UniProtKB/TrEMBL annotation:
Residues 1-22 form the signal peptide. Residues 88-123 have a biased composition (Basic and acidic residues). This is Ca2+-binding EF-hand superfamily protein. Gene3D superfamilies: EF-hand (1.10.238.10).
Length: 168
C-alpha cells in the first residue's frame, strides 16, 4: 500500500509540470484568440471608408479621437491621472487580468521624453505599431488578409512556445 501511494505521489510530482504547462498553453491560446477577435473588431472600426484596408490616415484619425477622449481636462497632454483612468479601463476590458510584470506599461513606453506626460505626437507614435506590424507588403496600409496572416504568425509562435516544454 505504501509503495502504491509512493508511486502515485512520484507520478503526480513528475507530471505536475506537464499539467501546468498545458494549462498555461490553454490560457495563452485563449488570450491569443481574444486578441485576434479584438484586432479584427478594431480593424473593422478603423476602416472608416470600408475599402477593406486601414491606412495611415485612418490610423491617425483614430489616434486623435482616442487622445481627445483620454485627455479629459483638455490641456493637450495625458497626465498621470488620465493615464491611470486609461489603465483602469484597459484592466476592466481584460477582466482585471494583471499585465505581465516584465512588460513595460504601454503608456510608460509612449512617454518618450519621460516627463510624466504623453503628448499628442507621443500618443500617435505609440498607437500604430500593433497594426503596422501586420503590413507585410509595407505599402502603408493593412488589409484584412494581412491582418489574418499576422494573427496566424502569432498563433504559430504561441504553438511553438507551447511545444517547447513538452519536448524538454
Amino acid at each position: 500500500m505504501i509503495r502504491i501511494a509512493a508511486a502515485a505521489l512520484a507520478a503526480t510530482v513528475a507530471l505536475a509540470p506537464l499539467a501546468a504547462s498545458a494549462a498555461a498553453g490553454d490560457a495563452r491560446q485563449d488570450r491569443l484568440q481574444k486578441r485576434a477577435e479584438m484586432m479584427s473588431k478594431r480593424f473593422d472600426k478603423l476602416d472608416k471608408n470600408k475599402d477593406g484596408a486601414v491606412d495611415k490616415t485612418e490610423m491617425e484619425a483614430a489616434s486623435a479621437r482616442a487622445f481627445d477622449k483620454a485627455d479629459t481636462n483638455k490641456d493637450g497632454v495625458i497626465d498621470e491621472t488620465e493615464a491611470k483612468a486609461i489603465r483602469d479601463r484597459m484592466a476592466e476590458r481584460r477582466g482585471d487580468r494583471p499585465a505581465k510584470a516584465n512588460r513595460k506599461d504601454r503608456l510608460e513606453r509612449a512617454d518618450v521624453d519621460k516627463d510624466g506626460k504623453i503628448t499628442r505626437d507621443e500618443f500617435a507614435a505609440s498607437a500604430t505599431p500593433w497594426l503596422m506590424r501586420a503590413d507585410s507588403d509595407k505599402d502603408g496600409k493593412v488589409t484584412k488578409a494581412e491582418l489574418d496572416e499576422y494573427v496566424g504568425k502569432l498563433q504559430k509562435r504561441a504553438d511553438k512556445a507551447d511545444a517547447k516544454p513538452a519536448a524538454q
